[in-house]
Amino acid sequence: MELLPISEINVDPSKVQEVEQIMKSTFRLITFSREHLADDLLNTYLSSTTNLQELLSIKNAQMEAQNEQEAKDYVVTLNQTLLFVANEIEHQVDFNKELQLFQLFRSISPESHANHPNRYRDKLVQIGAYLCPDPAEIPSLVSELFYNMNAIKNPIIRAIYFHHELIRIHPFIDGNGRTTRIAKNWILMYNLYPPIFIRDDNEKSSYINTLSKSFTLLEKNPAKWNSELSLFFDQEIDRLRFNSLLVYKSVQKLGETRMKNN
């Protein structure tokens, strides 16, 4: 397997800039509003982000669990992992090291970690028609992925790139999706963006299909940008835009309410 070179990434910059502008506008409200106390606006922002984290837990559970009990157990595990990530962010720790990947794997997929403690998979794995890399390739691929990721300046692109390529490597025997999505959201949340999550079954189907098709095209033309890669990045940015607007509107609503009451 050959990783996608970061020089091949070809995302519409205006979409990324739109998300950046929404979050800048949110923090302008928090910092410079005359109608509200900064603490009020900040609390609203934090509350909105917390609600997104809770929704993230529910949606991820739906994607990962096979029955109601599994979903309940997974929500508990995911919330514990999110608390760990939030604590790391509070202490100014970004996601940028291979060791952190194992920390997330151990936290979010404890059963899989118990069977394969602190090591990558040692068996071949197939996702649909896509055959994941040979286990012998995994250590070097993951190391290369972190090297590439850390060279990407924009955190939005960095998070989505890491997500796509780590799923393609599929380093663990199980729990790859949940580990990858938490890692992506660690990057985003550290850089003051809300987390990304799958909102419904249609998005879930589109997410899986787009990933699968992009893998197929990369097998035919390794290390080359393709239409499905473009679609995957666009879908992820759209999800981030939706959540960013949700945070902004929550903060803005507080301002409008305070103005009416004065």
Describe, in plain words, how this protein is organized in 3D:
The chain has helices at about 15-30, 40-65, 70-90, 100-110, 110-115, 140-150, 155-170, 175-190, 200-220, 225-260; strands spanning about 125, 130. By secondary structure, the protein is mostly helical. It has one domain: Orthogonal Bundle (Fic-like fold). The chain has a two-stranded antiparallel sheet. Strand 1 (about 125) and strand 2 form a beta hairpin. Helix 7 (about 155-170) runs antiparallel to helix 8 (about 175-190). The protein is globular and about 65 Å long. The relative contact order is 0.17.
Helix segment count?
Answer: 10
Identify the overall geometry.
globular
The fourth-level CATH homologous superfamily is Fido-like domain
| Model regions low in confidence, pLDDT < 50 over at least 5 residues | none
Number of DSSP strands? Answer: 2
In CATH, what is the class?
A: Mainly Alpha
Order of helices and strands: HHHHHEEHHHHH
